[in-house]
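Let's inspect a concrete specimen:
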Amino acid sequence: MTTPPYENPDLAGAYEDGNKMPEESLRAWVELIGGFSPRLPADVVEIGSGTGMLCEALVRHGRAARVLGVEPSAEMRPQAKALHSHPLVEYVEGSAESVPAKDGDFDLALLSRVVHHLPDRPACARELARILRSDGVVVIRTTFRERLDADVYSYWPQALEADLCRFPRRDEVVADFATAGFRVRAETSLSLPVARSLGEYRDRLATRPQSKLAQLSDEEFQAGLRRLTDAADAAEAAEASNASDLAGSAGSAVSERYDVLVLAKTGDMSA
């Protein structure tokens, strides 16, 4: 059996530095996510909590009363406890299909950048229906297959080819969660800066901190990194010399866009 990408110890070690974002972007994300809760501060469970960046930020910015971070990776959980510990955040072993929590224990379940990793989305939906309160919601932060548009694909086109196979479509996710009694409550999209420049973006991705990069061959990864390095160097040179209008845009912040799908419990299994 193939080892899931998130179980890769190299990915776990690189994930935090490679995926952190400016504090203002992080705050904007947790305010958006928390805003979908039926009550604030919310009782939150994050499925696939990784290194705990969002778990801790939800509490720190007043959007969560407590957070349970459920993470299957034995490599990720120690990182979360070391980097994002908080008295109101608990990190536990578990999976999307088996959450160590009581029935009706949470207001909001967050799946951030993990829905494409789930081996059984209907089973995940049933489990979240169990642990959410009657008015609870699921917030899915992802990029659906039909909207894959990340800058990273410009430098690693092989990653786009792979993601077109492993990322679900929006209608597939909606249908899978409908089997457990969820309906669409809201949809939006948000693009925010993740790096101040292409150079910083290059430095982040050089550690292969994303599963899409971890799955590339070394040759494919290095070729893409050279393309990104060339682009970053060109942007830096243009900005330094003020030689053209390109300087102002190429040297600016790099943003990432994500789809946000909010699903509410209905209690109707045919919803």
Observations:
- The CA atoms of residues 83 and 159 lie 29 Å apart.
- Strands lie at 42-47, 64-70, 89-92, 106-112, 132-142, 182-195, 254-265.
- The first helix runs from residue 9 to 19.
- The first strand starts at residue 42 and ends at 47.
